[in-house]
Design a protein that fits this description.
about 210 residues, alpha/beta, five-stranded mixed beta sheet, 6 helices, 9 strands, globular
Amino acid sequence: LRRLSFGSPPMINLLDFDRDGLTRWCVEQGEKPFRATQLFRWIHQRGVADVDQMTDLAKPWRQKLRGLASVVPLQAISEQVSRDGTVKWLFDVGAGNAVETVFIPEDDRCTLCVSSQAGCAVACRFCSTGHQGFSRNLSTGEILAQLWHAEHHLRRRLGLSEGERAVTNVVMMGMGEPLQNYSALVPALKAMLDDHGYGLSRRRVT
């Protein structure tokens, strides 16, 4: 999913970072730490993927970013919408693998079920994912891209303002066993909880 250019290092997927990780990366590029917070807000709070639309970033920094990094979304293979407002997406994660993400609206919450692996190695008898076998762990960016897509797609569909959240709860109970992908999971959770990101309450991320 990362774009490559001949003779150059691979493009960085900005969804792969929590804010601390993004700060370290920005400092490595010779930028001030506060630039990471600006960038993080544009990506996660506003859902902006195009660097040129991040208008409070200095123009030289935007030009530099275009050659270094991008926001890499997941391609939605399908979207199914139920009468009760439930939405199920099937996302392509490459090499013939796909993962499901499900949005469930209720009276007091709107929950997103997020996948952490393509397939699952645990093979619980009651679970259809287990019967598919295990393909691979998802990256932090692939985990976060599910929330990024759902939150900003639903905000537009539901006509919500920038300060209103479409997703109030996240449950890591899509495909896969999240704690078997701990190193990728933890930065994704930090971004979900970050007030400069999605600002979800700890009690609402399971």
